[in-house]
Amino acid sequence: MRKVLAIAGSDCSGGAGIQADLKTMTMHGVYGMSVITALTAQNTMGVTDVMLVSGAFLKKQLEAVFSDIVPDAIKIGMLGNKEIIEALADFFEEHSELIEKIPIVLDPVMVSTSGHMLMEADAVEVLKKKLFPWSTLITPNLPETNVLTEKKIETLAQMKQAAAFLSEQYAISVLVKGGHCSDSASDILYEKDKNCSTFSGEILTNPNKHGSGCTLSSAIACNLAKGYTLQESCKKAKKYVEKAIGANLNLGRGRGPLNHMVEFR
Ligand SMILES: Nc1ncnc2c1ncn2[C@@H]1O[C@H](COP(=O)(O)OP(=O)(O)OP(=O)(O)O)[C@@H](O)[C@H]1O
Ligand SMILES: [Mg+2]
């Protein structure tokens, strides 16, 4: 069985973070593992508090996983602060021969949709410098793309330019997600070899899409673990998320979660 590791924060309400990652992995028929960076107190209405783990404890979790079950792909989500990013980068450095062989999908989570900061502002530079070089793919949404490019990205044409710019700047593949775009819900993949693909999607108007970004990056990691190309992996993941949003699971009093159990094969 293929094994996938999520390195991310917990969402106690089950819709995003580690909980979304593990549900997505189970639905993709892979064995899911989780190294937890943070506990968040959140629900469908927003995030009320965050408790980060120490860099030292993050490393203990990584050592426990890698000394026993080596993942076939890694998804990285919420990291929180510089200390955690540096601890993860140190671990990758110390195990570089192993890590270089594993596809890594990095979702550069910065702010929750409800507006709560999920990464300290001074951590962005460290993330770019220390973790982008290890990543096969980064998956910024539009607000994160704005931070990374220092430009305001609104249209599909600007998303393509931004994906190309970031891919060339960091020598990695980039998927700019269109969930915050008013034109359409299309995602743009610009690969390291300069191949550009558009995964088109209609905007689904139901509000129940809490955790869509976490789910997408996990689904991509699962597909990569199963041996699909990056392009196929992103295409299949987009379809899964579309169906899981489309299921309109109306749980909770705010923006409800996706239905991860939707049939997608
Ligand atoms: N309203 C929508 N209709 C259809 N697809 C959507 C919609 N919103 C988001 N998506 C899809 O969901 C995935 C996640 O995109 P999005 O830009 O919302 O990420 P995100 O902001 O990181 O999500 P999150 O709020 O979970 O952090 C993408 O594949 C995107 O195309
Ligand atoms: Mg996100």
What is the N-to-C succession of helices and strands?
A: EHEEHEHHEHEHHEEEHH
Helical run tally = 9
Indicate the structural class. alpha/beta
Rg result: 17 Å
Query: What is the CA–CA distance across the termini?
Result: 18 Å
What CATH calls the topology is UDP-N-acetylmuramoyl-L-alanine:D-glutamate ligase
Residue windows where pLDDT falls under 50 for at least 5 positions: none
Tell me the total number of β-strands: 9
How would you describe what is shown here?
The structure is a single chain. With 265 residues, this protein is α/β, with parallel strands linked by helices. The protein has a single domain, classed as Ribokinase (UDP-N-acetylmuramoyl-L-alanine:D-glutamate ligase). It is 39% helix and 19% strand. It has 9 helices and 9 strands. The protein has a 9-stranded mixed beta sheet, with helices on both faces. Helix 5 links the parallel strand 5 and strand 6. The longest helix is centred in the C-terminal third of the chain and has 17 residues, at 230-246. Bound molecules: adenosine-5'-triphosphate and magnesium ion. Magnesium ion (MG) binds next to loops.
Structure keywords:
9-stranded mixed beta sheet; binds magnesium ion; binds adenosine-5'-triphosphate; alpha/beta; 265 residues; 9 helices; 9 strands; 39% helix; UDP-N-acetylmuramoyl-L-alanine:D-glutamate ligase
Brief characterization of the structure:
The chain is α/β, with parallel strands linked by helices.
Note the topology.
Blueprint: E1 3-11, H1 17-27, E2 31-43, E3 46-52, H2 55-66, E4 73-76, H3 82-94, H4 96-99, E5 104-106, H5 123-131, E6 137-138, H6 142-149, H7 156-170, E7 173-176, E8 187-190, E9 196-199, H8 212-225, H9 230-246
The structure holds adenosine-5'-triphosphate and magnesium ion.
Adenosine-5'-triphosphate binds next to helix 8 and helix 9.
